[in-house]
Protein 1
Amino acid sequence: MSPQASSGVNAGPSGPARLLVLGGGGREHALVWSLSREAAVEAVLVAPGSDAIADEPKVRCFPNVSALDPAAVLDLATREDVDLVVVGPEAPLAAGVVDALLDAGVPTFGPTRAAARIEWSKAFCRDVAAAAGVRMARGRDFTAMEPALDFARELAEAPGSRGVVVKADGLMAGKGVTVCDDLDTARAALGVLFATLPEGQLAQPVVVIEERLSGAEASLIALCDDHGALALPPARDHKRLLDDDKGPNTGGMGAYSPVPDVPESLCATLVDVIHMPILAELARRGAPFRGALYAGLMLTPEGPVLIECNARFGDPEVQALLPRLAAPLGPLLYGAAQGDLASAAGALGLTGRMLPTTGDAAVAVVLAAADYPAAPRKGDVILGLDDAAAAGAAVFHAGTVRDADGQFRTNGGRVLAVVGLGTTIPAARANAERAADLITWPGMQRRRDVAARLPAAARGAATSPDPVSEKAWMKGGPS
């Protein structure tokens, strides 16, 4: 059977009946929560999963199966006769788990290792974007400290410079980026990255240095097959630990959707000028992409600029996105895995580039452990989970474990994402904050300004307003 072929023994016109989701964090909890509620789904298997994920309907977790072990994942998928494997985190992609599944003919939503390189190598991402004509910040990749520092100095001392961004080239769980206000900060960040490496030139890039851009960030994630893309609504996350974007960078302390300054009517254009050219370039290089392609954007005064690509659903963005969707996810993931996303979308009556939404807004507030992100403390008893659920919030577990007494305890850095829905963003925010206030443990950290700063014209709307001038907004955009 060819790598992209499938028996699809349990998959009907309405999508896969038996799915295997890889991972055990908050993103995977949200995916399992969504998929398990679809009428056509009979069972959702999760490896390794978590105690909280196992509480969802139709779910079985396999805690002894590592998502990073291709042989173990393939054995589980084959033994349990699954129709579709859905890869959650980035590490299994880089480990080649998808390659092993496809070689055995198991339909899989997630890119091969070669295609996933768009995430795990920042230098490769820049090279692909340049070849595809997608605009990114001015930057270069380096294998040695001194030339990297020289380029950082050049950017920092340029007229009108806002600083420098230092990015580790490999996978860093969302925390490999340092935003530097000055050259001294950049020098320190480079020193950390090069400290444990051998002297002299290395074979592969170690670091990417980029100019620091001015503007607001946004995320646009699309379900993709080799040649097509269907986008989820835009989202915005909050990377810094503390209110007012202070403190260290994290994997994300909250997210909301829609994004008032990224009109959903414009997202189709963004897919056409960012996602589609990147898909075409990856296919041209012999690395066709099937999975979730995440475009991290900076909305500069001159237009949108791509700042990064991820090869999977964003976390915590997806926790705020999935509760808004008005179409089943399973058939679309299966269609993308089969290289036939367009037919899957057509069978659901979907047209255009965007997935439909319920019309509600969503706000996700992340609750983090004491001492996160440096050295998160584990083992603290979490109180108030039932109260938050009773208040109407969806609570997705990212880093928890159930003890012998049935109590959930902290077991990671980002512990929970509390999601509120509402007819407007402020209403969703109020619901999320109210529910988050009911949860506590010693040393718990959270931001209280997620989705707090909105354009005045958007504060009463759940959906993004039509732009005054889309052409003006796109000026200087990707070319």
Protein 2
Amino acid sequence: MKKWFLRIGIAVVLLAIVAIFVVASSLGGIIKSGVETVGPKITQTEVKLSGVSLSLLGGSASVRGLVLGNPTGYKAANALEADEVSVRIEASSLLADKVIIRSVRIDGSRIAVEGTPSDNNLTRIQKNVEAFAQSITGGAAGDTKPATSGPGKKLQVDELVLSNAKLSLTLTMLGGKSVTVPLPEIRLANLGQGPEGITAADLTKRVLSSLTGSVTTAATDVVKNLGGVAVDAAKEASKTAVEGVDKATKGIKSLFKKN
């Protein structure tokens, strides 16, 4: 009899383990589908993932091939590309009303910006996100308070880090010249800590707000630096041209004197 109880116990444990792996694999597909469905509604651009790997036992997830598309009217197909995003999750919260995310780390992403430091594809996406957040909360555009209503689960993100990002700037004020510069690390903490949490729309808005702020600073610095170089080059060219005219004039005067 004891052997039968032992066998049944082992079978139950094995079934539980299998169930966990099945649920984990299903959740990965659900997360991917959810991001690709809800993301475009929030940003009004294409949002794609190559895949999601989720480990319930380890409380971790890996998001591969994250792509944030550009609004219509811009040359580059995508505004942001990240090969991999690492996420640590409180596994027990996945079935709760508020999902607790301990950390999100986006390392080595590629960000393409077109326009001016203050008016570009990222600021356009940010406006789309703010309009969506306003539509589901009824708050004023630009309000940074967490949403207290709206569809979908609430979130809590303890830490979000975007590091080692490469910023490709195509600026109209530099004649469409493209420059690639490193983007300083962006770190956000304690998002949605209260019982009301934070919605996906408000989280996206907070991230984009920090990103566009860093991009504006970087783009402004590039314009100043390259603009200064351009002015110096123009001055040098003008100086050379004047010297050349002076030399030519002196040569002509000398020729007439000889004749």
